[in-house]
Amino acid sequence: MIRTAFFDAKEYDIPAFESFGKEKDIEFKFFETKLGSDTVELARGFDAVCVFVNDDVNGKVIDELYSYGVKLIALRSAGYNNVDIRHAFGKIHVVHVPAYSPYSVAEHAMALLLTSVRRIHKAYNRTRDFNFSLNGLTGFDLHGKTVGVIGTGRIGRIFIDICRGFGMNVLAYDKFPAPDSSIEYTGLDELFEKSDIISLHCPLTDETRHVIGMDAVGKMKKGVVIINTSRGALVDAEALLEGIKERKIGAACLDVYEEEADLFFEDRSGHILNDDVLARLISMPNVIVTSHQAFLTEEALRNIASTTVSNIRSYFDNDGMCDNELCYHCGEIEQCRKERKNRCF
Ligand code: NAI
User: Fold this and answer.
1) pLDDT given at position 261
2) Given the CA of residue 294, which atom of ligand 1 is nearest to it?
3) 295 lines ligand 1 (CB under 6 A)
4) N or C: which end of the chain has fewer CB within 10 A?
């Protein structure tokens, strides 16, 4: 039996993990609290920890886990910016779920866009109050508009397909463009200048942090719609707010927010929100915020649980070999042992 400490557990996570875990002889102990410096002690005596996007797996936490004999950090997400993988290298192996349902996120991005440009959120509230007026609800057609997609991986490409279905023109930027695709790649500046809508689908790295900042907003078209379903810190929230106040940005659709860690996934109604930037953004008529729910479909939850469980099982069964292991060398043919069909260290 592999004992796994499961942090930041939510009621929608538990059934699938329990049932897949039972099949593969993995016992999960579910903790509601997030993993961080103050809670790492809970992982004592476990073989593995299972974490999500807002667990803070920093160097100090990794050292503690290592000293307890924890062998594996199993992310139940695709993104891994919250784990110091450089620090983990040589100590604890890290696995993730590279793909569970890219459709869930791409479809949510389109749901946010349609809601925003057709003012569905406004209409929903109005008609519930028997207010059938149309004033202020004028939207615009997506057909013929140009969408700029930053990051053309699994999710970005599905989002591109959906946009093409709407008759939109697609421009894309990726640090590693797909050579064999029909995607029209361009530089970031040109994408900012020409896009009516910009959607972010790249990972959060030192390079992409605040890719949407003051400078980028300055280059954009007036009325541009910004969609972020990737990671909050891709967007400088203060620059976004300024752009909205100056009427430069026409609308923002945010499923993620830079400072979301202590807020998102929790019921904070009845509390005073201390984050003035988020409060101001939410108060804007042209901003829609969902709390990191783009992944939340039945299909994705099932895939997340089954892949995480097989990642854990295959790590412990195959002498540390697991296809979904990652390290800070991954992707570099010369340096990455995994590229040579080995474990990362
Ligand atoms: P992926 O790894 O398939 O694609 C990422 C793409 O970004 C790749 O094509 C890569 O070349 C590109 N990229 C890397 N560095 C870049 C840079 N500096 N500039 C521009 N492009 C760059 O990842 P996938 O599965 O498409 O996911 C994208 C992001 O979506 C994840 O990193 C994650 O942050 C986010 N996500 C959000 C979820 C949510 O619930 N809101 C759920 C799942 C993922």
Assistant:
1) 87
2) 40
3) yes
4) N
pTM attached to this predicted model: 0.91
* Atom number of ligand 1 nearest to Cα 77: 43
Do 239 and 318 fall into the same domain? no
Residue 86 is part of which domain span? 2-100+298-338
Q: In the chain, how long is the greatest CA-to-CA distance?
A: 65
Both 96 and 112 in one domain: the answer is: no
Please give the pLDDT value at position 333. Answer: 67
Question: What is residue 278's predicted lDDT score, i.e. its pLDDT?
Answer: 97
- What's the CA gap between 217 and 286, in Å, rounded? 16
Length in residues, the chain: 345
Indicate if 248 and 117 belong to the same structural domain.
yes
Below-50 pLDDT ranges, the chain: none
Do residues 61 and 36 make contact, with C-beta atoms less than 8 angstroms apart?
yes
What does the alpha-carbon distance between residue 194 and residue 260 come to, in Å, rounded to a whole number? Answer: 30
Query: β-strands 26-30, 2-6: how paired?
Result: parallel
For 5, 7, 208, the CA distances from 49, given in Å and listed in that order, are 5, 7, 28
**Residue pLDDT, tens place only, 27-60:** 999 999 999 999 999 999 999 999 999 999 999 9
By annotation, the residues acting in catalysis are 231, 260, 292
Å from CA of 256 to ligand 1 middle: 13
Each residue's pLDDT tens digit, 318-343: 887 888 999 888 877 677 777 767 88
Find the 219 Cα to ligand 1 centroid distance in Å.
23
